[in-house]
């Protein structure tokens, strides 16, 4: 199973800045090894990035989408449009979408199903906030979001689960601390077991569960090489080509 390292640029970089990043990044990286590298720029950069990554092995992802292919949904982008532009992945249910745009599990589930039906690989984000962790509700929240998010999703091998504890996400603060490798591994193992229960042992083994929340060059090696951590979803530290490259290098030193 290829590991997966995805860059979530959030609402950062114009198309011009995005192209500059890819040019720089390609100079550092002459092959992607056996990891799937995915860049998820804003919608307005997708086309330019799609052209710039041609034949590089780097894959394209979007940060959100609507669940219908077309219709009267002002301001929305459809799975069909993402496919046309070259997307292979789409981040769904990110905690910022849940918190700032009121996305709930049932909406996220519709998007997961639509992505799978369109041949896109959803990166389904789940994770507890600090209050829920303190109240020892972490497992309940993860279980609830996973089960509801995956309802009727049968092509589980095409789904990537991103465990992102909300309290560890940097939101641009480079000093923010990630989960410890022990906390992250514990949650990932729990998710793996849940997947085994919903699907079967083989599917659970073959589904990538990646970690997100303040992954940086200095912690990537220990976090991303834990047994049940199959890669990372990187926000702030993916905005700079050198730091994103260092994360990939660190991750490769382990069990790839
Ligand atoms: P971060 O963001 O790496 O800046 O913490 C990760 C994410 O929100 O996906």
Main beta sheet strand tally, sense and closure: 8 strands, parallel, barrel
Count of individual beta strands: 8
Rough shape? globular
Rg for CA atoms: 17 Å
Strand content: 15-25%
Task: Please tally the helical runs, counting DSSP H or I stretches of 4 or more residues.
Answer: 11
As laid out across the biggest beta sheet, the strand order is 1-2-3-4-5-6-7-8
Helix and strand element order: EHEHEHEHHEHHEHHEHEH
For the record, give the distance between the C-alpha atoms at the N and C termini, rounded to a whole number.
9 Å
Low-confidence stretches: none
Give the distinct bound molecules.
2-phosphoglycolic acid
Structural class label: alpha/beta
Mean pLDDT comes to 95
Structure report:
By secondary structure, this protein is of the alpha/beta class. It is 43% helix and 16% strand. It has 11 helices and 8 strands. An 8-stranded parallel beta barrel has the order 1-2-3-4-5-6-7-8, surrounded by 7 helices. The model has no long low-confidence stretch (mean pLDDT 95). 2-phosphoglycolic acid (PGA) binds at residues 8, 164, 169-170, 212-215, 233-237. The site of 2-phosphoglycolic acid has 13 residues, from strand 8.
């Amino acid at each position: 199973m290829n590991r997966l390292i995805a860059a979530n640029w959030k609402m950062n970089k114009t198309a011009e800045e995005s192209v500059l990043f890819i040019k720089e990044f390609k100079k550092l990286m002459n092959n992607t090894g056996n990891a799937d590298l995915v860049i998820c720029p804003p919608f307005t950069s997708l086309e330019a990035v799609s052209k710039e990554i041609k034949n590089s092995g780097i894959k394209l992802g979007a940060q959100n989408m609507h669940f219908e292919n077309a219709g009267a949904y002002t301001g929305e982008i459809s799975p069909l449009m993402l496919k046309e532009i070259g997307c292979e992945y789409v981040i769904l249910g990110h905690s910022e979408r849940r918190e700032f745009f009121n996305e709930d599990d049932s909406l996220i589930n519709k998007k997961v199903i639509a992505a799978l039906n369109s041949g896109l690989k959803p990166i389904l984000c789940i994770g507890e906030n600090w209050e829920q962790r303190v109240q020892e509700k972490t497992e309940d929240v993860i279980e609830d979001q996973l089960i509801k998010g995956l309802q009727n999703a049968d092509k589980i091998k095409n789904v990537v689960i991103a465990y992102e504890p909300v309290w560890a996400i940097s939101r641009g603060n480079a000093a923010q601390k990630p989960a410890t490798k022990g906390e992250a591994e514990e949650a990932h193992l729990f998710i793996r077991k849940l997947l085994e229960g919903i699907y079967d042992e083989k599917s659970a083994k073959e589904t990538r569960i990646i970690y997100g929340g303040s992954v940086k060059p200095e912690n990537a090696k220990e976090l991303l090489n834990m047994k049940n951590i199959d890669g990372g979803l990187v926000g702030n530290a993916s905005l700079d080509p050198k730091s994103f490259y260092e994360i990939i290098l660190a991750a490769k030193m382990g069990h790839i």
